[in-house]
């Protein structure tokens, strides 16, 4: 699995990571299984370039490869709910999650619904009725909004979505902890956050991200591409690596969990 570690006098140890054999889907399911005893778990999934860019031409899709898309499908299958900011859903032209027959059977065996819903986080609650995430889906999405916008959103969206009031003390803002608690209380404790940067930054600042699944694409993008997190204040959240794997195209896939 890994070559021997070699230490310098200052105590630093370097280890060359590698795999002697391919990792099949069964192996990926094992590597990315949610902790079985956690009452709730917020996993983030993101992709970056070698120079830290999270997008090309405004979306993350241009950074992906075959292996990244394969892992993307598996992470979605394992999740109870997929959480995404409304702005990202618009920019990436999100539709509802799609599962193959085999994935649906896998989910049924795990006691999950056949299709994980999309949970859209939006402070304004304003969503166009023709958004793909509302019209091209087998299950209505959840809309996580603030108290001030919830009633109007319910009137506007009707049966196309289920609107949840996720405010705490401030009725004009979505409280991330309240949103996470609301999803867990609905029987959706295994959460997959797919961004964008503002939502990731909000969860990070609130100390709600338990895990980061990070794909590093073997490309440089330059320009002013955003990072995977954004926000007003700097947050230092220590992570520990669970694993690091690669593929034939040179992509790296790391799983990191927060250090308590």
UniProtKB/TrEMBL annotation:
Give the record's keywords alphabetically: NADP, Oxidoreductase
Keyword Thylakoid among record annotations: no
Q: Which residues form the Bacterial bifunctional deaminase-reductase C-terminal domain?
A: 40-251
Alphabetical list of Pfam families matching this protein: RibD_C
Key word NADP present: yes
Please state the pathway this protein functions in, per its UniProt record: Cofactor biosynthesis; riboflavin biosynthesis
InterPro entries the UniProt entry points to: DHFR-like_dom_sf (IPR024072), RibDG_C (IPR002734), Riboflavin_Biosynth_HTPR (IPR050765)
Q: What is this protein called?
A: Pyrimidine reductase family protein
Organism encoding this protein: Candidatus Mycolicibacterium alkanivorans
């Amino acid at each position: 699995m890994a070559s021997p570690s070699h230490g310098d006098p200052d105590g630093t140890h370097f280890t060359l990571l590698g795999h002697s054999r391919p990792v099949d889907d069964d192996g990926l399911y094992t590597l990315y299984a949610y902790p079985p005893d956690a009452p709730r778990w917020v996993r983030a999934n993101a992709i970056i370039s070698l120079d830290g860019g999270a997008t090309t031409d405004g979306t993350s899709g241009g950074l992906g490869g075959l292996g990244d898309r394969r892992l993307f499908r598996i992470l979605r299958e394992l999740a109870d709910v997929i959480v995404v900011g409304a702005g990202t859903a618009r920019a990436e032209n999100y539709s509802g999650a799609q599962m193959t027959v085999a994935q649906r059977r896998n989910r049924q065996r795990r006691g999950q619904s056949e299709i994980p819903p999309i949970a859209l986080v939006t402070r304004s609650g304003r969503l166009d009725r023709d958004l793909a995430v509302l019209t091209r889906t087998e299950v209505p999405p959840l809309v996580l909004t603030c108290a001030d916008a919830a009633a109007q959103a319910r009137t506007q969206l009707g049966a196309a979505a289920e609107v949840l009031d996720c405010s705490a003390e401030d009725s004009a803002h979505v409280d991330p902890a309240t949103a996470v608690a609301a999803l867990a209380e609905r029987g959706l404790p295994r959460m997959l956050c797919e961004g964008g940067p503002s939502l990731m930054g909000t969860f990070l600042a609130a100390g709600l991200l338990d895990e980061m699944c990070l794909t590093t694409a073997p490309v440089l993008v330059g320009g002013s591409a955003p990072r995977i997190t954004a926000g007003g204040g700097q947050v230092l959240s220590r992570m520990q690596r669970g694993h690091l794997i690669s593929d034939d195209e040179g992509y790296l896939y790391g799983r990191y969990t927060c250090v308590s």
